[in-house]
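Q: Can someone sanity-check these two? First one:
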Amino acid sequence: MNLQDIPIIRLIPQRPPFVMVDKVISCDKVYTETQTTVRPDNIFLDDGELAEAGIIENMAQSCAARMGCVNMLRNEPIRIGYIGDMRDCEIFRKPKCNEVLNTNIEILEEVFNLTMAFVSTRIGDEVIAKARIKIALTDIEIIDHEQV
């Protein structure tokens, strides 16, 4: 299965116009990478730049996409997760419209339904943001609207 061919809305609970991830580039037990182009119609775009809230939402949705991928690869239902904590968040610059964001998730620890991850977002080789995020996974399943 080519991860890049999976429609992102099958992996995350958000729906347009609030989708901040285009596709999953790679995913395994420890590392995941997502990709997003900052489009002119992005709801977090402000004077041609993605606001800090949009960068953080991209990081959170990248974590959700990772969890969705892991569940899908295990043939398990895709469940909703919540950000339980965000620490050491630094945003070095705001991306401009049409720039491509690559967001990397490194899993630091997983215990039961809690996951601690280091997330960094870059444009090319430039890291523009980073944070430590704690995610709590629920038992609530994402409804696959394509099958309803």
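And here is the second, same format, sequence then tokens:
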Amino acid sequence: MYSVKTQIFTVNAQEPDKAIISYAVEKLGKGGLVAFPTETVYGLGANAFDFEAVSRIFEVKQRPSHDPVIVHVSSISQLDSVACDIPDIAYRLAEEFWPGALTLVLSKHSKIASNVSAGLDTVAVRMPNHKIPLAMIEVSNLLIAAPSANLFTRPSPTTAQHVIDDLGNHVDIVLDGGICSIGLESTVLDLTSSSPTILRPGGVSVESLKKSITNLKLNQHYVDTYNGIAMPSPGMLSKHYSPRASFLLFTGNCEGATRRLLETIAFLVSHGYKIGVMATDEDAGYFSEAGVEVVKLGSENNLSEIGQNLFAQMRNLDKLNVDIILMRAVSSHGLGLAIWDRLIRAAEQHVYDLDEPINIDIMDEVIKQK
């Protein structure tokens, strides 16, 4: 395992210190790993042209080599250093959505290390809307390959402390630029298929993309195992973004939904489980007397707030050593689709409808299997 003494630097997200940025870039040029904030989540960066450096990303994260990572650029003009046979629509979308939380899948340029793309002839690329990674790319001759800076399948990091908790002493430098403003990964859009296809919903909504792409398709995959086959996009496993506790997701908006959820909690508590609940501000009060740990995500009318808090609150409940985390799903409109995607993967597709009778004995068996 790649092991180093991790250095941590606090960096002003609006005016990054040039000396710190230059030092981080020097580490990248020597094959090191640098964790940095973006508007989505913290990334674990390596030189995208250096096969051995990129290999360290997979080693440190304990990430399968079949799961590709994203190349980050600081200008649209750098696209032809990452990709080839670039369609006109890629430039049009980049002009409209970059810098921002949109990743484009294109045909890979031969200069990019093959393990960036899991050996595929495609590559994922985006321009982050954050001055720290943009400054790192601009002052160097490097492009940065970076997935999220966390252990594989765990909740993504939205603060520098999350990175340190997961990867401390396995990353050369952590640049602490504060809390990520979106808190959810980028939307991944495949432009190599016959129709532009969303492979992973994220920080740019489907509704926003449909305004620019008339033939847009949505193709979410829930892959149980890799079986040695490379994935076209990160974030496609059925288990992903998952806390250490069992995570149970509930749907339903009937009048009895809260009552049924409280009955489920009572059953689980009676069986000796320590329970955590992730709730909207509006729902949190219902659980105050239930003998559980409750964390607030934000208002049900503010999906941006919920998205920003989602992974951090999963991690907070893990630190409280709960056995099971329960949450009622939010709206799947707009950013809610990305939130729903993360929740269903965190729950490993164990979703229960509160509008229907719940077989809590089956639920108990699911929990015991984790």
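A (reply): Looked at the second one. The mean pLDDT is 92. Residues 98 and 127 are 6 Å apart (CA to CA).
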